[in-house]
């Protein structure tokens, strides 16, 4: 309760900072563009692979050269797919962070002043975790990254 009450004393500044964090760290525009490029790349590579497989079935050709071309396309696809998975995970993480911050901001805006008793719903929506130090000092880390020593 005391950590939350300290937090609300600077409510406007905390909300402004959390909104700035949302606007800067939770932006996914470039990642979404990269995801689209990777989808296009994978689609093209799949078409190219199907084409050389069909050609190999129709026309007699050097199988060693065919296998090299095929393996190169598979490797190209695997690299694109690995990056696609990384980008998709990064987008999901940013969207989750954005949602947590949005909820944090909304909850903070709805609260009017200090609290007098523990509220588990408020706690769950505001606090991220608590750290207890070696000398039993307690630090509450809120969902916007603010840390308050209690």
What would you say this structure looks like, in words?
The chain is mainly alpha-helical and 150 residues long. Helices cover 71% and strands 9% of the residues. It contains 5 helices and 3 strands. The chain has helices at residues 2-8, 11-25, 29-58, 63-110, 120-126, and strands spanning 127-132, 138-142, 147-149. The protein has a 3-stranded antiparallel beta sheet with strand order 1-2-3. Helix 2 (11-25) runs antiparallel to helix 4 and helix 3 (29-58) packs antiparallel against helix 4 (63-110). The longest helix has 48 residues, at 63-110. The chain is elongated. The termini are close together. The model has no long low-confidence stretch (mean pLDDT 89).
Short characterization:
Helices cover 71% and strands 9% of the residues. It has helices at 2-8, 11-25, 29-58, 63-110, 120-126, and strands spanning 127-132, 138-142, 147-149. The longest helix is centred in the middle third of the chain and has 48 residues, at 63-110.
Summarize this structure as a short list of keywords or feature phrases.
single chain, 150 residues, 3-stranded antiparallel sheet, 3 strands, 9% strand
Give the topology, please:
Elements: H1 2-8, H2 11-25, H3 29-58, H4 63-110, H5 120-126, E1 127-132, E2 138-142, E3 147-149
Antiparallel strand pairs: 1-2, 2-3
Helix pairs in contact: 2-4, 3-4
């Amino acid at each position: 309760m005391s950590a939350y009450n300290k937090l609300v004393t600077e409510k406007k500044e905390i909300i402004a900072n959390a909104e700035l964090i949302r606007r800067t760290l939770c932006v996914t525009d470039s990642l979404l563009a990269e995801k689209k490029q990777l989808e296009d790349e994978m689609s093209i590579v799949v078409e190219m692979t199907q084409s050389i497989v069909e050609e190999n079935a129709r026309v007699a050709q050097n199988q060693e050269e065919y296998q090299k071309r095929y393996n190169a396309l598979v490797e190209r696809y695997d690299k694109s797919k690995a990056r696609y998975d990384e980008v998709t995970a990064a987008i999901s993480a940013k969207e989750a962070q954005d949602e947590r911050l949005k909820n944090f901001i909304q909850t903070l805006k709805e609260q009017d002043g200090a609290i007098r008793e523990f509220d588990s719903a408020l706690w769950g929506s505001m606090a991220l975790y608590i750290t207890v130090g070696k000398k039993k000092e307690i630090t509450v880390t809120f969902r916007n990254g603010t840390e308050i020593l209690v």
